Amino acid sequence: MAKPLLRLILAVLFVVAPHLHRPSEALRDPEIVVRPSNAMVLPLVHTSANASMHQSHLDYRRHLQRVSSHTEIARMRLFDDLLTNGYYTTRLYIGTPPQEFALIVDSGSTVTYVPCSTCEQCGNHQDPRFQPDESGTYQPVKCNIDCTCDRDKEQCIYERQYAEMSSSSGVLGDDIISFGNESVLKPQHAVFGCENTETGDLFSQHADGIMGLGRGQLSIMDQLVDKGVISDSFSLCYGGMDIGGGAMVLGGITPPADMVFSRSDPGRSPYYNIELKEIHVAGKPLQLNPRVFDGKHGTVLDSGTTYAYLPELAFVAFKEAIMKKLHSLKQIRGPDPNYNDICFSGGGSDVSQISKTFPDVDMVFGNEQKLSLTPENYLFRHSKVQGAYCLGVFQNGKDPTTLLGGIIVRNTFVTYDRENQTIGFWKTNCSQLWERLHLPMAPSPAPSPSYDEIPSLGPAPAFPPSTLQNSILPGEFRVGLITFDMFLSIKYPDLVPHVAELAKLIADELEISENQVHLMNFTSEGNGSFVKWGIYPTRSAGFISNTYASSIIFRLTEHRVRLPDNYGSYNLIEWKVEPAVKRAWLQQHIFAVVIGIVVTVFLCLLASIAMWHLWRRKQQILGTYRPVDAAVPEQELQLQPL
């Protein structure tokens, strides 16, 4: 039976700020989520009644934290890139057996939702829609006094409206949610949204849905904390410029010794805020009143926002301070004529060297602790001019709120310690996070099957390459063939002319040779197409190395194969690994044997030709030889007439 949901009703007014520069997410109210692309909508009033209610809930939660200790965490990988895709995603698995989804990680959203199989208006996303009927543990959240009910008063529903006129609505369901093979945290029951309608950007985006990490009863964090399975904390680590990806931890960890902290006051606003007091450029503080960063909602940290937005006075001071340090560079137009980007050429293409040209920036918190930012934390690459960079910090219209998006925390491990009302920052290489933090590992997977069996996985949680190589592909195992079944949401007649092109695209995405990818089966399946592919060793090798095979399988299971939109979305149904066939000595050395035979025949032919020429020469010599006493025919002497 699903747990009843408490639905907080807030008295909220909204104001629309002037045009902003491509934020993928903006601030939201805990109940009405706002996610504009061209405008930011913020709650104008956060009532004191709601603040006290929320504070009471926090006090109760901290009491639970004190009476029980938590050792479990969910370790999860992040994918995509904030500046390229507009978001980061993680993999979440819902149902029994698990169905995989790529969800946008959003600290400003309070609900997790995925497209439902009953959706009448949903776009083509990365993965197939959730099938409630195929999950043995799914239960609808029945209508009750604590939720909004459907017309038939049978099931709880949800609705989210967005400022750019997109929306998401559907029913609430309860099912088992799991976090992948790297997670120590066991699968848990949770309430989530099953979409029946989506419009606007939600309809067209590649990601399946949103994973809400904000403060709210439907937030995945609040649900896990209320169950007592994790402590009230989560962490995000975004990859650096040109790298993308990253990591996420649900639950508390021991903070690194050199992590810097800022207080985060949940009573100040419903968003994750910090106490920013000063900004320094090249060691010099901007001449600003500290209260400039405390207007309206204060300084808000939002993982779903792409760039950073400062109040007008702060932005002008920051821009001027940066430009004074770049007098040797040429200012150029931005990549998009629709925006007045501030860009500079001559910065060099090597990201590791741009700090020699662009100044460092420091953010000083209310407790005098300082977060140092490198140029990759406030710049983005110019997409049309090599070696050029643009400011990723913009004016927040006339809104006095300071909004810090993902660009500010690239290659920074950010801990949202909700229990202690602090947010911590630790500069690090996010691609090496697990090794540097020494976080607990999930139990080792079950031993791999014997060589007589074919290893196989359906759409289950993916393995990292190292796990695959050690457990699925032991050292003595030689891979002779990798097959995988793919279902594409494109009709059979439309796909037939492009199969060869699709094979090349898959080869490019897997970083293998095109002649290694072979079409094995191709059939029509409803409104889609079922395709079986085979990946063979190169012609010069008899097997695929385990490292290479692990990399291929990881790319497949982690949906790293990105296809153009005209192929629709795809689903990896199953993959298999077949061992290399042991060949006889002659089969293994057939090429050398053939070459040897050809060379031998050629040499014999040359020898025969040489012998024949010698014999002919000898015959000619014998034919012209005459004994001394041999008779010579007389020849008539002819005289020329005078």
Automatic annotation (TrEMBL):
One BP term from GO: proteolysis
Pfam family, one: TAXi_C
Catalytic residues, chain numbering: D106, D302
CDD domains per the UniProt record, alphabetical: pepsin_A_like_plant
Domain of life per record: Eukaryota
Residues of the Peptidase A1 domain: 88-426
Keyword set, alphabetical order: Aspartyl protease, Glycoprotein, Hydrolase, Membrane, Protease, Signal, Transmembrane, Transmembrane helix
InterPro entries on file: Aspartic_peptidase_A1, Aspartic_peptidase_AS, Pepsin-like_plant, PEPTIDASE_A1, Peptidase_aspartic_dom_sf, TAXi_C, TAXi_N
Gene3D superfamilies reported for this sequence: Acid Proteases
Signal peptide region: 1-26
Metal-binding recorded as keyword: no
Transmembrane segments: 590-615
A GO molecular-function annotation: aspartic-type endopeptidase activity
Family affiliation: Belongs to the peptidase A1 family.
Entry protein name: Aspartic proteinase Asp1
Organism: Acorus calamus
